[in-house]
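Subject: Protein record for review, amino acid sequence with backbone structure tokens
Why sent: The fold of this protein is of interest and is recorded here as tokens.
Notation: Tokens come from a learned vocabulary of local backbone shapes, not from coordinates.
Attached in line: The record itself begins immediately under this heading.
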Amino acid sequence: MPAKKVPVVPVVERIREIAYQLWIEAGKPEGAAEANWFEAERIAANESEAPKAKKAPARKKAA
């Protein structure tokens, strides 16, 4: 089975969202873009490594 290709754009978009949130939470400081980006990359990597929650099996309807 061939290896799955990971979509790059959604990952970059997620990093951008996280970096923006970090910037907002820090009070919008100037000159922090690079530090926020690296922190966002770390956070996004941890999100992708986190085990996914399994869905509970569907319940059968009573007859």
